[in-house]
Task: structure prediction
Amino acid sequence: MTANPSSVASSSAEPFRFVPRDPGHPDAAALLCELNNTLRTITGCDGSSSFDVRETGAAFLVAYRGDSPVACGGFRLLGGHTAEVKRVYAREHGAGAPLLQALAALAAQAGYTRLVCETRRVNARAVAFYLRCGWRETEPYGKYVGRPEAVCFCKEL
Result:
């Protein structure tokens, strides 16, 4: 499964434009740096994890309002038809939910039927965000099994 590298357009009512980017692109890198700093403040760890957009089945989007990058996030193959959402960050209020919708649409186009993600329990804002966006708490997976500080979520596509 590979994601289509073309731009994913938002609905006409939505003011965001979603562009596939390499995480090393300057716009993506700036957002990821902000994410790392924010996570370091909340959790004591910057949350950097392995994510390579060149992996089979991986994708990374930057959300723009006009020419300004306002949010980012990606996904990678976890196994079967499941993708893991990674590095979600919005610097502008209201950009996160449309970004998750764009990631879900891109993942569905790539053949995924389920998305999962993890955040730290102490990151109450992220926990509330995923729940508000219709994700549900699920059993820990992979390296998060047995880690009480981790909370995992899933979304069926």
